[in-house]
Design goal:
Layout lengths: L1 H15 L3 H8 L14 H8 L1 H26 L6 H17 L12 H11 L4 H15 L2 H19 L4 H17 L1 H9 L15
Length: about 210
């Protein structure tokens, strides 16, 4: 089982290293990591490169989580007894690859869109709950970071409800939440001081 877990983490990590925001930025001759929050993710792509880039980044970052999970679930380990656990580890690898891509000096995104892709692939029944939680909290506060952190908290709660007593899966789901909070440290500080950027604020790109 340990070798299967390592394999799933590696597959996930390789997919996660596909940095959608960075590549879209490069097409526009912009290194997104040098603007806005410096984060190669959906929110910074939206603020820095516009709505189209933000949407494409969101889709790309979700797909790079969904695809390896589908491969693990239906092609590589379709009959595994602990398949859902391997799915979680694959997703964890994706988020690690997204947050810390080796080819970009381990400077990537914050992993929320990738985590959303993992949650959807892991259990589609979570979609309406996660959607309402994220959209509702962002609509009320206008802080994407608040919605992102609440969704990360939802994951282990969902595991507790759907898989009561499975400590291993709970621990892995908690790692998703911990990674989200680690990557949102600066956002949390700004939220506490009232200086966090709200949804809709744009970042100016230098013409040269």
């Amino acid at each position: 089982m340990i070798l299967k877990i390592i394999f799933c983490l590696m597959i996930g990590y390789l997919f996660g290293c596909f940095s959608t925001a960075y590549l879209i930025g490069k097409l526009k001759h912009v290194d997104i990591r040098k603007y806005g929050s410096g984060n190669a993710g959906t929110t910074n792509a939206l603020r820095t490169l516009g709505a189209k880039a933000g949407i494409l980044t969101l889709i790309g970052d979700m797909l790079k989580a969904i695809l390896p999970i589908l491969i693990i679930r239906y092609l590589i380990f379709p009959d595994m007894e602990n398949l859902q656990l391997l799915v979680l580890y694959t997703g964890l690898g994706v988020v690690l690859g997204h947050n810390y891509p080796f080819w970009l000096g381990f400077k990537g995104g914050k992993g929320i869109a990738a985590t959303a892709g993992v949650m959807i692939s892991f259990d589609p029944f979570i979609i309406p709950f996660g959607f309402v939680l994220f959209v509702g909290s962002v609509a009320l506060t206008r802080y994407v970071s608040v919605g992102s952190l609440l969704v990360s908290i939802l994951f282990p709660i969902w595991i507790l409800i759907r898989y009561p007593g499975d400590i291993h899966m709970l621990i892995v789901s908690l790692l998703f939440m911990i990674l989200a909070f680690i990557k949102h440290r600066s956002n949390i500080k700004r939220l506490l001081t009232g200086t966090e950027n709200k949804l809709g604020q744009r970042v100016k790109i230098d013409d040269n």
